[in-house]
UniProtKB/TrEMBL annotation:
Protein species of origin: Bactrocera latifrons (Malaysian fruit fly)
Entry keyword annotation includes Amino-acid biosynthesis: no
Keywords: Calcium, Cell adhesion, Membrane, Repeat, Signal, Transmembrane, Transmembrane helix
Protein name as annotated: Fat-like cadherin-related tumor suppressor
InterPro entries, sorted: Cadherin-domain_protein, Cadherin-like_dom, Cadherin-like_sf
Organismal lineage: Eukaryota, Metazoa, Ecdysozoa, Arthropoda, Hexapoda
Gene behind this protein: kug_0
Membrane topology designation: Single-pass type I membrane protein
A single Gene Ontology CC term: cell-cell junction
Pfam families in the record: Cadherin (PF00028)
Amino acid sequence: MKIKRYAVFVTPKQPMSLWTILIIWFCLLQPTYLKTDVPEPTEQKHQRIHHHQRSEATSVHVTANYITLNKYKFRHKLYNVTIPENSVGKTYAIPLAREDIMGIAIIPGAEVKYRIVAGDRDKLFKAEERLVDDIAFLAIRTRTSNVVLNREKNEEYLLKVRAMIKYNLGDDYISDETETTVHIRVLDRNDLSPLFYPIEYAQIVPEDMPIHRSILRVTAEDADLGVNGEIYYSFLIDNEYFSIHPTTGVITLNRQLRYTESSHYNLTVLANDRGSAVNHYNHQSSKAKVSITVEQVSNSMFKYTYIYIYMTCCKPT
């Protein structure tokens, strides 16, 4: 009964007409026909384009200033590095342990070139760039030439390094520059031998000189630094009559001299630097000759004393 009553009030759905289907199909395939394009006035169009160009230019200018002020600058005005003397070509300077790595931060796609602009009169060094992610690291190395670093000639260099950066920003190709100073300290190598001056010594000593008395002093110098420049003295062949102080070079008498036993002594003194012994390198050494002449002392006083004592003690009564 209820079903029949519901069916009375529900009317069947009318099918769509053919014209309605054609109109809907035409509108879906051709949506542009339903658009109403209103042309933009010329003056308003020019104002819109000009405003857009000004906005882009302002954005590029602001971005360029930000990059220049915040990105393309060295973190420090001065960097300290070291390099050994007598280094062969392509030996790289090493930053100190407490120093930051040299370089500048860059944006992707930027090109960086480093160049030494002052402080390298003899053209001993070369600046190189190494791009790692967003950092352009600065490396200083020796050139591949016959000229080597000599610490005794020049122990430090102050290089002014310029970074030249190029990058694209929008439609513009922008270049920038920044500078820093690199202080290079040349490390000493034990490349010099001690030098005696003079190289020959001579001394006359009386045969009655008291033992442990200083006779003379030899002197040698070494231009190397630290232990490489500290000198030890010794005899090439040990002598029982004489000894030499290892650091002062003072030669001392150890035994009583006798003219009748020997009137002349020839000694050879060696000077070795401490660096050779400490680091087990080949010894850097030099030699000096020492000539000691023994002067005879008159024994007449000894004879007179002996005779006087004999006559006093042994004369007959």
